[in-house]
Each structure stands twice: as C-alpha cells, then as structure tokens.
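can u pls check wat happens w/ phenylalanine
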Amino acid sequence: MSELQLTILRKLNETPNGVIADSRVSFPDVEAKQIQAAVTSLQSKNMVTFKPLEIDLWALTEEGLDIVEHGSHEMRLYDEVCKALEGLKIADVAKIMGPAGKVGQQRAFKNGWVKKDGDKLVKGVDAQPADKTAEDLKFVHANGTLADAKELADLKKRKLVTKTRLISYEIAKGPEFALEIKKLETDLTIEMVQSGSWKSAEFKPYNFNAEGAVASSGALHPLNKVREEFRQIFFSMGFTEMPTNMYVESGFWNFDTLFVPQQHPARDLQDTFYIKDPVEADRPEDGQLWENVKGAHEGGKYGSIGYRYPWAAADATKLVLRTHTTSVSSAMLYELAKDPKPARYFSIDKVFRNEAVDATHLAEFHQIEGVVADYNLTLGDLIGFMQEFFSRMGVTNLRFKPTYNPYTEPSMEIFSWHEGLGKWVEIGNSGMFRPEMLEGLGLPKDMRVHGWGLSLERPTMIKYGISNIRELLGHKVSLDFIENNPAARLDEKLV
Ligand code: PHE
C-alpha cells in the first residue's frame, strides 16, 4: 500500500461521517492525478468509493497580478494627476504610463476621479478614493472567486482574471473499508487446492475492462473474422442476434419442439452427446406447450396425423449438448408467439455432434443460422432470400436440391459452384418450418417461418485455402498460420 493510500484511509477513519468532501481541501499539496490513482486502486478492492468533483477556480492574469502589486490603472492615473500640481497634460499620459494610460484615463473619468481642464487632467475628488479593482483582485487571488458574479464577469472581460477547472475528489468509505489492504489472491494454485486454503482465500475480482499490456498486438482467429463478416451481413438485412449462450439443452427443445420423432437416428447415442450429471432437465413451465408437442408427435393435431407413437416424457427431459442452434430458434419462435409479428433472427455459435473426427469433421463446430417469420411466406420467398443472402457474401451461383428435415417441409439443400474444385458443393440446408412445430409453439396459422443453416468452418476453410479442419482449430494449428495468412491479421480490415 502506498503512503498516500494509507493517509487517505486514516483521514477517512478520522472524519466522523466517513467522507472526505473535497480531496483538494484535505490534501492541498497532492496532485489530483495522484489522488485518483490511489483511490482507483482502493476502489477496486471495495475499500473506498469516490466521485470526481469539478471545481471552477479563478486566477489572476499577469496584468491582474500587476494591479494587485501596483494598484489599478485608474488609481495610478489619479496618483499621477495628484502629483502634477499644475494638472497633467493629456498628451503626457501615454508617456508616463505607457499603454495602461488609456484604460486608466477612461476608468478614472468614469469614476469621476479626474476631469478635463483644457488640455490637462485635474482631480475630480479631493479625498483619495478606494481602489475597488485592486481590492477585488486581491480577494480573487486569495480565495479563487468573488461573491459578486457581475464584478467577476467584468474582471474577466477586462482580462484581469481567467477561469481554471480543477479536478478534485469526494471520497467515502467503501463496504470493505479497513486501515490495511488485504492481499487478495490472483491465482488458484495446486497448493491451495491440496491444503484446502482456497476455501477461506479471498480472490481478486476479474478486471474485464483491462486491455492487456500491449493492446495493439495479437490477431483474431480466422473463424472469428468470418463470423464477424456474417454478423454484419445479418445486421445489414435487419436481423437481430439470438441468445445462444446455452450449450446444454433438453431433448424437448433440441428435438421434440422441432418435431424430431423420438426414434430418429439423430437422437441416438452415436450422434448426440447426452449429459451424465445432471441427467434430467425440468419440464417447461408451460404445460400447454408440453401437451401441444406431445399431441403433435402422437397425432391428430394441427391437421396432421403425427407420427403415431407413444411419446415418452423421459426422452424430452434428457439433457444433451445441443446438436444444432435450431433449438434456440425454436425457443425464440415460442417467445415470438406471445406477440406474433414479422421477425428476423440469426445466430452463429457452437454445436456438438458425436462424430468421428476427420479432415473435414469435428465433434464440435459452429453453425450459422437464420430464421425469418412473416405472414404468408412461400418457398419462392425462401429461394429469393437465399440468393440475396449468399450474394452478399459474393456467392451468386446457387442451386437447390430437395432434402428431408423432420422440422421443415419442403426442405432444400443449397449448392454453389466452386471454381477451385470445379464442382457443385453443398453450402447449407434450409426449409419452411412445419405447422406441427409452429402451431405447437403457439404461432398463428398464417404465419410462415423459413430458416437455414450452414457451418462457419466450411466457408472459413474455403476462404483461407485450408483443406484439413485441424489446421484451423486445435493443437495442430501452426503458429505460422497467422503470419502466412495476412487476411487473418487483426489490423486487416473486414471485408
Ligand atoms: N438445423 C439444420 C442443420 O442442422 C439447419 C436448418 C435450420 C435447416 C433451419 C432448416 C431450417 O443443418
């Protein structure tokens, strides 16, 4: 702890209300900058709180200081007139007093201290008048201000005083006030875990605002850069970002609300990671939603015959690592159903699939997903929308192929022509969400929703010319990667 910090803490301890109202008054010899450094660090430990005060102080200009010492120009002129027994020749004023003579003459006239007699100046009053200008300036010099604001403004106009803004601080005791600084732990060490001392240790809170020692160095990961490009495309098309901060979902949201039957192979252990501890999720609070979803699967709801199997609650409450971000879209559409209106949502985040890792697959990857809700949308709207969306990424040549998703009908795979590979490559999957899903979530019958998804890794690999995904993520990524890929450097502008 610095000497100054200790001094501040002691002073706070002495003051009856625990507040230092103005640090400048309590510590007149310490610079504001030093006070600020001391209290900022004390505040981070919750030992004090503080707020800056801005105080206007008036100081004398050189001319003002001169007047304090030698009297005002008008007084000096009056003195000169008194000295000249025969009267003072107006022509001599400038010679004796220099440039100040003119001001002195004007003001002395105005005050009635001198008057004209032919080409001379003579006394206007017999008794020596009081030099108010000099008196006022003396007061400002000592106190930094003047009670009469008009006088002060007048002195300012005459360029005899100037305003300076001073920073000071009001400091008060914080919740952890003490006269000593506790040393807070910054690291959780093996020793602390072994001895159990971590239980009573106090840890320094994270400073999420720290910019790091060298704020200008480093590089964004290529995935982050491409992610940012996609985000900007979505924002430019009026989308809002969905909250995707939950990797763990219930089977209910990941599958059942999406009309994925409980026998679907995607729900098998070979495809989905199930959570061991805890195993089970709570049922949704909305009992009607639960019944809607169950009903849609079993059949006879929303004009559909359903899948006609006994729907098991136990499968819906299993916890899984989400296999797609469509679980989040589903939850957002459920929220939208409370106040249905046209909406555009997107997300770009991690999903998990129990897949064998190879050159192009990882067990976790990122999904880009967009969802558009509007009245009476058609498949033509979806195709037109896809063309617009991908053209903003510079991909114009699209083809669509019918495919199957449990939650969309019709569904389409999106292909684009890859010049380098000389073939059509699949770049995404899309479709119109089924009424069994949308009506179960509570959306009106004439509201249609289309959606599409693609991986973030694939376009990133294409952009950076990477053929093995392990060159992009994980411990095999070369340190030279950034060096060799100028596009990955932080200062390189996003396209
Ligand atoms: N969830 C799909 C996938 O995993 C993507 C998708 C989203 C398809 C929305 C249609 C509608 O590939």
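The first strand starts at residue 19 and ends at 20.
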